[in-house]
Amino acid sequence: MNSNNILTMNDLSVNDIMKILHDAMLFSNSQKDWQLSKSRLVANLFFEPSTRTHYAFLSAQHQLGCKAVNFMEETSSVKKGESLYDTVKTFEMLGYEAVVIRHPQDQYFQQLQGVHIPIINAGDGCGNHPSQCLLDLLTIYQEFQTFQNINLFIVGDIKHSRVAHSLIETLQRLGGNVRLGGPKEWVDQEELYMDIDQGVAWADAVMMLRIQRERHTTITHQKKEDYLQMYGLTQERVQKMKPHAIILHPAPVNRGVEIEDCLVEHEKSRIFKQMENGVLIRKALFKKIFQEEF
Ligand code: CP
Fold first, then answer.
1. Res. 171: pLDDT tops 80
2. Is the CB of 251 under 6 A from ligand 1?
3. Residue 130 pLDDT level (bands cut at 50, 70, 90)
């Protein structure tokens, strides 16, 4: 495998993370128009739906001067039974210099040991979502200029959330504190559990998560109004947040379920800012995997 792969946040040291965030901030300021030294041929292989991640990677690729193509599973030889390994290896042999992959299987990349071009993981099942984690970290860092003792409260379907799984460990590694809320059956680290009303008052950043029904093996029969009142972010709960505290959500948002509709663009919300940061982070990731400097 390529040593520049970005598959999980464990592939990145604290120094790597801080360099990526720094580069992303330069992309929003002095290095807006910076491009790679040569136009790279890259492919996006999305085996699951995506709006933000897919099109943020594409925007980053275009801005950096890459030639980017989007793999279409429906019209590919996957439909004739070709394996993930053979599909990705084919892209390598066709001259593609890096691939971005989203796939429903946890740790799909374990099958790709024989691929030598860099792979950026755009989400594996319930496992990891490193580029989302980095854009969440950038959004927190822009707000507080540090991670030391920052309190992050993540609420909702944590068990099925690759976003939460990437962020919990990483923020702790960076010196922050994490607590988890929502239905107890979806909190897979019990020792971090905190009641919703306590959590919103404790946090510097409250991250709400969508219920990921597509990953559930049993049907959840909860009415959306009940869910919002029991575990969601309501105007009443926002009143309990610290004055400087912010609202995050990786999106897509199910308005009126995990968060009240009017809070999505509340003054505390950084939800659309996270999306904007997603392009900056992906530009920084391509700069890293192609080992270029400003
Ligand atoms: N946050 C995120 O991964 O969104 P998409 O599924 O739209 O890419």
1. yes
2. yes
3. very high
Q: Which residue has the tokens 């959330």?
A: 161
Give the atom of ligand 1 at the shortest distance from the alpha carbon of 123.
Answer: 3
Residue 222 has pLDDT above 80, yes or no: no
Give the Å distances, CA to CA, from 32 to 26, 28, 64, 174, 180. Answer: 7, 6, 10, 27, 36
Angle at 268 between CA 265 and CA 273, to 5 degrees: 65
In short, whether 39's Cβ falls inside 6 Å of ligand 1 is: no
Residue 111 counted as domain residue: yes
- 55 C-alpha to ligand 1 centroid (Å): 9
Mean pLDDT in residue range 166-177: 97
Q: Are 245 and 152 in contact (CB under 8 A)?
A: no
220 pLDDT tier (thresholds 50, 70, 90):
low
| CA 42 / ligand 1 centre spacing (Å) | 20
Count of structural domains, the chain: 2
Are 18 and 74 in the same domain?
Answer: yes
- CATH number for the domain including 116? 3.40.50.1370
Q: How confident is the model at residue 215 (pLDDT cuts 50, 70, 90)?
A: confident
Across the range 113-127, mean pLDDT stands at 97
What token pair was written down for 228? 């919002």
Q: What is the mean pLDDT of residues 287-291?
A: 98
